Amino acid sequence: MKSPICEMFDIEFPMLAFSHCRDVVAAVSKAGGMGVLGAVGHSPEQLEIDLKWIDEHCDGKPYGVDVLIPNKYEGKGQGLTNDDYRKMIPEAHRNFRADILEQHDVDGSVLRSLDDSEGIENSSSAALGRGLKSDYAKRVLEVAFAHPTKLIANALGVPPDWMLQMGKDNNVKVAALVGKKEHAIKQVEAGVDLLVVSGTEGGGHCGSVSTMVLVPEVRRAIKPYGNTPILAAGGIATGEQMAGIMTMGADGVWCASVFLPTLEAETSENIKEKLVSASSSDTVRSKSRTGKHSRQLSSPWTDAWESKDAPEPLPMPLQTMVSEPALSIVKDKAAIGHEGAKKLETYWVGQGIGLVNESITAGQTVQKFKEEFIEAYENINNLFD
After folding, report:
1. C-alpha dihedral, 348 to 45 to 11 to 209, nearest 10°
2. Which CATH architecture has domain 4-74+132-265?
3. CA–CA distance, 288 with 377 (Å, rounded to integer)
4. DSSP assignment, residue 348?
5. If you count Cβ atoms within 10 Å of the first and of the last residue's Cβ in the chain, which end, N or C, has fewer?
6. How confident is the model over 256-290, as pLDDT tens digits?
7. Taken in order 352, 357, 358, 363, is the CA torsion positive or negative?
8. Rounded CA separation 174/50 (Å)
């Protein structure tokens, strides 16, 4: 296809697929799109293992890496340790998370006190805590740049100057995820190569403006600054949607949720079953997972945090240290068939999951997008016959 995205990355089809699963990344790249590995929480050593595997399985096709280096979070620049953060968590939040689990017959006693929860909180939160530090993030990126990575993407703010410079020095494009017009302008002023314009329908961290409004709004807003390519994201789960949003100013799409139920994906069988049966109304946008608004699959866990009795979510990274230890217990119990845990289990996903009703391979998903895109293109052409 003739798209700036295809030219930028030498790919056939302007679809980038974000996934925490290296198998999905390699499969999408081999199918003509480009996989992007979500490396939040990866140590440099783990990233090296995964990128080496992708190199061996992607047939020389391009791929990218996604990191999380937020501009703002509690205690930034203060040199706080994991224990410092743990001491900032109120007792009410520890008890509330434990109560949710125990209401579903899952033992949450280890989550209640500062002392008892030390091991599980450190285990669940250490990777995120390390990733917030610029020196550690640089080590992770150095691993990425040592491989034939073609893209580095950053969420939650303008990439730091050193990250942009590392991209230039290594001839690797740098992308930024944005959820507001104002954020997009700041990103292009900073010099990013590519914008991922993500509407509120998207899974994970998201703003409040719909993709259908946000993409043309951003395209018009950045026009005075040049022709920075745009990938549309948020709720896009079909080739028809891709064709439609590209008529509105996008140069391609960034998809994630549609790949979560694929056969290769890292999601558990319980989550896959929930995803393929979910409607577009079965997600919730909430601060309860990380302290910043993110969209996830509704469950009794998310319902509890939206109730009037719930404590106010804490700022990032404190709320992550509240939620992830509890959800890790839920995940482990669900994996062995615990019914209460299976009901509680949730996952980041966008509203587009309502358009997905089967589990197929990642490569088949890309092919399906291509076929649907062509059909939508022909439908538009027929309007002018």
Report:
1. 30
2. Alpha-Beta Barrel (3.20)
3. 40
4. B
5. C
6. 999 999 999 999 999 999 999 999 999 999 999 98
7. negative
8. 20
Count other C-beta atoms under 10 Å from residue 347's C-beta: 23
Task: Tell me the three state secondary structure of residue 198.
Answer: strand
Q: Please name which of 169, 128, 152 lies closest in space to residue 317, comparing C-alpha atoms.
A: 128
CA-closest candidate to residue 129, choices 177, 194, 85: 85
The upper half-sphere exposure of residue 297, i.e. CA atoms within 13 Å in the direction of its Cβ, equals 26
In this structure, which amino acid lies at residue 178? V
- Model confidence pLDDT, tens digit, residues 183-229: 999 999 999 999 999 999 999 888 899 999 999 999 999 999 999 99
Alpha helices in the chain (DSSP H): 4-9, 22-30, 44-57, 82-86, 91-102, 118-131, 134-145, 161-169, 181-190, 211-222, 239-246, 269-277, 300-306, 318-335, 339-344, 362-382
Ranges of CATH 3.20.20.70 domains, the chain: 4-74+132-265
The C-alpha atoms of residue 50 and residue 67 are separated, in whole angstroms, by: 14
Three-state DSSP class for residue 36: strand
- Which one, of 305, 299, 304, lies nearest residue 344 by Cα? 299
With beta carbons less than 8 A apart as the criterion, state whether 204 and 256 touch. yes
Smallest CA-to-CA distance from 100 within 294, 290, 311 is with 311
The CA distance from 253 to 271, in Å, is 24
Q: Note if the bond before 317 is cis, omega within 30 degrees.
A: yes
